[in-house]
Backbone:
């Protein structure tokens, strides 16, 4: 192993590895920083994506109509909890579910193929880091059509912008509003609820009252962190400030909806009137802007700076990140008010980011993208991509909780997970060119290929076997 492995670190710790025909960078830091200038937030493939922003509304309308019909006939009161094998599922629901699943697979394939082909792989890694930070999951009706749009339209444009802009775009996107049930949160003193009390309506799909899910997750997962200094009272007050934020196209509220960016909407009659007291600050009633003002303050809060710095350092510099790196990033975040371009430069320029030994275990998604780039796959069929990621246990936008996928080795390095990678590596090696594997390995891990790996590749009985071994070598597994 060479003493200078900076090119290897730039390619593999920061990025998604090398592609056939690429040359290792001569100036590793410059190679990374230039990607900030060349990054394309809306590549052609994403720009050509079908506009399905009206689909969630259609799905919700259909489910509400069917729920009312079932209630009138004395049947089940909800569609949730049923499986597609349930014979009671109406045909149109089954068809809608199948269509949504196909669209989700298309978006997963689109995201992955963009990363495989990208000449700015560090920027793509950052997109996926922030997407996981603002995790949404296709677990609720209508979300299948929106989780891809959330990353493409709320995350990508802000990767090198300001954290406050990304925060507002991400948490007020229809995908998040659906996922955390914000779309049906109504202020207890709002005009909608006052009207509802007068009419003493039953549970017919109308206003359901205050929902605190989004407010709580913004505090705990997206800004301050669980120990960030907020209270239950702050959560409730913030939830009230968020009332009225929903998405367009969901029935009777449509005539009250004021359109907002990225397909979200604000319904003033659902907003809780009055000023809000949140973490010692007073926010006067400015309608939809009340929640935006809270988000701006949360984005600048010292607890947010610490929380973001720790997560970013952990992702690139180890499960137990150096405290000095966390402090550098925290200071940069506070000084610049959350300028993510400056934060990225600080990460790249920090000596703690260039420790010679491997510091992280590649998550399944990282490993698959790096493997496909290494083997020269230009574009893979969407079904094969989702099948492989499902086998590896890390489908995008299917994290088990709003916290996103875990970023610790212990969550991904079990024997069963390793066996799945070996199986997939063997299949990948069968389908691609496998000549000059050792030469390719030297270029993929410049200065970092171990004698042990080199020996195993040289002893392989065939090029295919050598390539399969390379894909599960220590150099591929860790970065």
Residues:
């Amino acid at each position: 192993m060479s003493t200078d492995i900076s090119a290897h670190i730039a390619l593999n710790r920061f990025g998604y590895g090398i592609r056939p025909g690429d040359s290792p960078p001569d100036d590793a830091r410059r190679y990374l920083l230039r990607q900030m200038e060349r990054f394309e937030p809306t590549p052609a493939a994403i720009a050509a994506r079908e506009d399905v922003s009206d689909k969630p509304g259609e799905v919700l309308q259909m489910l509400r109509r069917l729920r009312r019909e079932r209630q009138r006939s004395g049947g089940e009161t909800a569609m949730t909890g049923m499986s597609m094998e349930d014979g009671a599922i109406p045909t149109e629901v089954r068809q809608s579910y199948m269509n949504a699943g196909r669209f989700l697979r298309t978006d997963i394939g689109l995201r992955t193929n963009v990363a495989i082909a990208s000449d700015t792989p560090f920027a793509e890694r950052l997109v996926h880091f922030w997407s996981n930070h603002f995790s949404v999951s296709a677990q609720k009706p209508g979300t299948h059509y929106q989780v891809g749009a959330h990353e493409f339209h709320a995350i990508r444009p802000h990767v090198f912008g300001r954290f406050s802009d990304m925060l507002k775009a991400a948490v007020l996107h229809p995908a998040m509003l659906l996922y955390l049930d914000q779309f049906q949160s109504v202020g207890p003193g709002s005009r909608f609820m006052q009207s509802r009390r007068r009419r003493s309506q039953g549970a017919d799909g109308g206003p359901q009252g205050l929902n605190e899910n989004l407010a709580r997750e913004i505090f705990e997962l997206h800004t301050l962190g669980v120990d960030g200094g907020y209270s239950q009272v702050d959560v409730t007050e913030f939830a009230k400030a968020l009332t009225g934020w929903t998405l367009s196209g969901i029935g009777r509220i449509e005539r009250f909806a004021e359109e907002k960016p990225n397909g979200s909407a604000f319904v003033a009659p659902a907003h809780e009137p009055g000023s809000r007291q949140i973490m010692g600050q007073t926010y006067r009633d400015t309608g939809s802007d009340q929640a935006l003002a809270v988000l701006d303050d949360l984005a600048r809060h010292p607890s947010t700076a610490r929380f973001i710095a720790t997560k970013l350092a952990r992702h690139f510099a180890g499960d137990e990140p150096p405290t000095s790196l966390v402090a550098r990033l925290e200071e940069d975040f506070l000084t610049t008010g959350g300028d993510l371009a400056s934060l990225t430069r600080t990460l790249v320029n920090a000596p703690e980011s260039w420790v010679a030994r491997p510091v992280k275990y590649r998550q399944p998604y990282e490993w698959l993208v790096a493997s496909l780039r290494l083997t020269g796959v230009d574009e893979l069929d969407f079904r094969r991509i989702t099948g492989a990621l499902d086998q590896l246990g890390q489908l995008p936008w299917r994290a088990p909780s709003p916290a996103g996928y875990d970023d610790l080795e212990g969550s991904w390095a079990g024997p069963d997970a390793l066996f799945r990678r070996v199986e997939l590596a063997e299949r990948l090696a069968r389908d691609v060119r496998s000549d000059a594997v050792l030469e390719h390995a030297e270029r993929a891990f410049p200065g970092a290929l171990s004698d042990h790996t080199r020996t195993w590749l040289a002893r392989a009985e065939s090029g295919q076997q050598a390539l399969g071994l390379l894909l599960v070598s220590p150099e591929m597994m860790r970065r």
Q: What stands out?
A: Residues 76-82 have pLDDT under 50 and may be disordered.
